[in-house]
């Protein structure tokens, strides 16, 4: 697969992985639709891209699921079609289960799971009608195994795998692809923006996140996985080995994570 003449819609495009994707893909022969809550920041990202004339800015809030059908229709109208939806928007969480308000669990499910699913379902008839489409979903290694102090985040990411694995099976006949991207630690502001037990932001960086892949290195690996149309891609440093360790011995993985510095 190439991005040549494709229309790519990126959520969470105002910072981090989404911003890096926008800037990198602007060097490909494709058109981009950039979405997040902050229009003014999206405009700044657009101006940093190589071909701003091929980029549309479309603000949205994944938590406002009742708006996403109309926003999807607007997105299609931007360039007349959409070929790839990169579901990158979302939030993380850092707090113990016993202390975490159920409102935080609900927020993570509303944004990371239901927002992504609602947007993807709104676009599905367009993909089916065109007999072509590619969903790229930025999940996490936490969507394949869990870690302490991220219970709501892990739950939402696990749910994404269940939904999109089913979508891939149901719509294989419609030539609709699904690529689940599972980042390990990537040095972005995801930890600073993570919700704590009462719903406030953590505001400081995690040590492991600080030592993670640079966003530019991650983006290159992610784009390679999309071009290869991989079902799943695990992108990170040594933490990716946990995927394979879980298959061999979930109990051993449990012990390894307990000894780690992940907090």
From TrEMBL:
PANTHER family: DEHYDROGENASE/REDUCTASE SDR FAMILY MEMBER 7B, DEHYDROGENASE_REDUCTASE SDR FAMILY MEMBER 7B. This is SDR family oxidoreductase. Keywords: Oxidoreductase. InterPro entries: NAD(P)-bd_dom_sf, Sc_DH/Rdtase_CS, SDR_fam. Pfam families: adh_short. The lineage of its organism: Bacteria, Pseudomonadati, Bacteroidota, Flavobacteriia, Flavobacteriales. Transmembrane segments: none annotated. Belongs to the short-chain dehydrogenases/reductases (SDR) family. SUPFAM superfamilies: NAD(P)-binding Rossmann-fold domains (SSF51735). It comes from Lacinutrix gracilariae. The keyword Metal-binding does not apply.
